[in-house]
Amino acid sequence: MAIEVRIPTILRSHTGGAKAVQASGDTLATLIDDLDSQHSGIKGRLVTDEGALHRFVNVYVNDEDVRFTGALDTAVKDGDSVTILPAVAGG
Amino acid sequence: MARFDSLVDSLGGTPLVGLPRLSPSPEVRLWAKLEDRNPTGSIKDRAALYMVEAAEQSGRLVPGATLLEPTSGNTGISLAMVARQRGYRLICVMPENTSVERRQLLEMYGARIVSSPAAGGSNQAVAMAKALVAQNPELVMLYQYGNEANARAHYEGTGPEILADLPTITHFVAGLGTTGTLMGAGRYLREKVPSIQIVAAEPRYGELVYGLRNIDEGFVPELYDEAVLSTRFSVGPREALRRTRELVESEGIFAGISTGAILHAALGIADKAVAAGTAADIALIVCDGGWKYLSTGAYAGTLEEAEAALEGQLWA
Fold first, then answer.
1. CA distance B79 to A69
2. CA-nearest residue of chain A to B208?
């Protein structure tokens, strides 16, 4: 069971500097729980106390924004790619 | 109509052209709205003119005023042209990692550039602009990220133009920056075609652009309303470059790199429609031409070389 999770620069303090780590889970929520068990504190950076994704964090499963696919309930499976990015301005 | 009183009067009314070679089947078709056919060569002309006219009408913008705007380039170029025509001065706060062409064009139109650090990306340009306006209240910041006239330009212009040319539209795909195009045209199209899918393509830059700041200092444009979108894709430089090249090779359209990202999302939608056996008319935005990005190396050498050259640059 392995899903690659790409970690943005500002969160690499939790992953010992690793740009990408492996985690497992059936949904994004359980994946983040598994990520947090390996890299303590990372969940608190991604998910609010109320259990929603942080406003300035964007998470993509296979490049699609999870806010349009069920947010933390988005299903994930082996071979998927998860990317975490901070929200930035364009234009 | 081909005769206009002045350059800004020729804004909009851009052509919608089919992409017969890139469309996967006669039932699933792609259509490109050529926004490079605007006065300064980008879709941002629409927002710039609307924002200036709204500020003039409200009395916020008076003769001799100085505008200040955070911009990674195109909005600045559009504002600079409008400002010069109407006698306003313009200061652009722009990240230093934007292409040299954009800077030269701005200077040619008489704008002043204040550079923000590359490592802070556009977020820092926005923060710097807000700080400068707070210190110098005489400056007028139209603020493209939160100005309703930006979205209205597309609600009244881009959206109706597309629907008039493509009444059978099933999907609208555009880039997500200020979110003005998607919010304005997206809202209009949803009202008229309730079943339509509104798809955002968001550029995914190299790591440098995302900076090292705390995640609490992220930025979501005030104009953004998630409810307008059906879905949102993140497109990296490799795919954006590949599609930008395919567009010029197979359809003859020489576009900027953000258009490649939009085309990538549109082709993904088209593949899904083919797999599902449904018909689709997919309209996508060509934001600008490729001219302003030649110096980035995007069009020369192999894809790998071009991708390496784009690392750390704001390419959309």
1. 37
2. A9
Considering only the beta carbons, identify the residue of B126, B203, B220 that sits closest to A55: B220
* pLDDT, tens digit, 9 for 90 and up, residues B61-98: 999 999 999 998 899 999 999 999 999 999 999 988 88
Contacts of A24 (CB under 8 A, 6+ apart): A1, A2, A3, A31, A34
Question: Domains plus CATH for chain B?
Answer: 8-36+158-302 (3.40.50.1100), 44-135 (3.40.50.1100)
> Which CATH code for domain A3-86?
3.10.20.30
Q: How do beta strands B16-18 and A20-23 pair?
A: unpaired
pLDDT digits (tens, 9 = 90+) for A43-91: 999 999 999 999 999 999 999 999 999 999 999 999 999 999 998 877 5
In single-letter form, the type of residue at position A84 comes to: I
Asked if the C-beta of B158 comes within 8 angstroms of chain A's C-beta atoms, the answer is no
CB B297 within 8 A of CB B309: yes
| B163: closest CA of chain A, how far (Å) | 25
Query: Please, what is the angle between helix B237-251 and helix B303-310, to 10°?
Result: 130
Cβ B215–A54 below 8 Å, yes or no? yes
Max Cα–Cα distance, chain A, nearest Å:
39
Q: What is the ipTM of this complex?
A: 0.93
Nearest to B46 by CA among B141, B171, B183: B183
Tell me if chain A has a CB within 8 Å of the CB of B259: no
Distance from CA of A62 to the nearest CA of B (A): 9
pTM of the entire predicted model: 0.95
> By three-state DSSP, how is residue B230 classified?
coil
Strands (E), chain B: 16-18, 28-34, 66-70, 89-95, 112-116, 171-175, 197-203, 231-235, 280-286
* CB-based contact B229 A8, cutoff 8 Å: no
CB pairs under 8 A between A and B: 104
Closest CA–CA distance from residue A31 to any residue of chain B (Å): 20
**Encoded tokens for B145:** 């990220």
> Cβ of B212 under 8 Å from any chain A Cβ?
yes
